[in-house]
Amino acid sequence: MKLDYKKTFLVGLVFFSIQMMGSLHDSITPKMLYSFGVGETLIGLTMAADNIFAIVLMPVFGWLSDRTCTKYGKRTPYFVIGTVLASIFLILMPIADDLRNLSMFIAVLFCFLASLSVYRSPGVSVMSDVTPNPLRSKANGVINLMGAAASVIGIIVVNFLYQERINLWEYNAIGDRVPVLGSDGLPVLNENVSNVSMYIIVALIAVIAMVVYCIVINENKLRKEREEMELKYGVYEYESSEDSKQKKTSILNMSKNMRKSLICILCSIFLWYFAYNAVITYFSNYSAAVLELEGGSFAQYTLVANIAAIISFMPAGMLASKIGRKKTIIIGVFFLAAAFGGGIIFTRVSPAIYIIFIMAGIGWATINVNSLPMIVEFAKAGNIGEYTGYYYFASMSAQTITPVVCGAMIEFLGIGYRVLFPYAALFALLALVPMLFVKHGEARYK
How many other CB atoms sit within 10 Å of the CB of residue 360? Predict the structure, then answer.
């Protein structure tokens, strides 16, 4: 049984679109909120809205897409509608920033986040729909490769096109930079700077990815081919489309040991996202305050991390095929914790920071390639979207809470953004604990 890499790359255009717009949001929205004079705790609350929408809407749209049947497939309609809406609202965000209208910015941001949630769970479920069970780690490596490629493109766009709106800085008591406030109590901005063109470019790339997907991918045909291949090779989880309507594995009726493993995996997912998302949310502001980087130059470090992830995705899937998903994930968590621990040391620009981000990229890729396949291993063909929803419920719950907790610590502990990497290293290490108790989630045959 061999993975069809061309097909999997094309299916990955869904995740490419999600990551293209999501990475821009993660990098720049905290900086825009900072330029509005919003404190770190409120920045965290606003960034958490992404995940609140996801927690509420992703299981719903995963469930709905499981039960959708159109000539275009189960998931494709959600991809098309979500991408079009998200692209429109994405472009409106920098317009609100230029107008310095915080109410408009928040309203447009929330509409953008709701639009992304429409197709996140259905979009990610496509890979599992069309890929035989034992090949899902390799396929997920390809999907994550597409996501990382989107992030790299987005980061390059940010690095070259993003212009810092905050015009004047001063130093606080601990030696970190903070914006100079004007007579209105808000940061002094350069009114001649606009980032609208950057957002238009990213939105257009996401729409083009969606159009190409719709032209080349026949979702119904690929799902049928997957079922036939599983039957041919005697894959343990195989069941026909008709049977899948009658028999589904829910978290309530699975065995006690399987439920324990599923809960442990979900706890680990929660904890490593608790660590990782804090860095993703606040690194752009950390780079300005602590590392004293200007404009989009912070993106050079996240670019290195994403390139390292791209290189690692497929080897990580292959490694899991040899030593198992659990062991591979544990290796990835060690890399991530070590990277964040190394970030504690450097409070000024140093070449060693590149090494830290390379390690983080390798660790994150190794974790992500294998965690979703472990979760959907518990599902049957008819409710893959439901278990994809469980995965995203765990990850998005963490991403809802951690920006607020970390933001409050940055704002009120007295050491500012220097709390970021100790915080991330601690929770990355904690993610190892529940993973040690996982006994299920590997690919199985008859």
Answer: 29
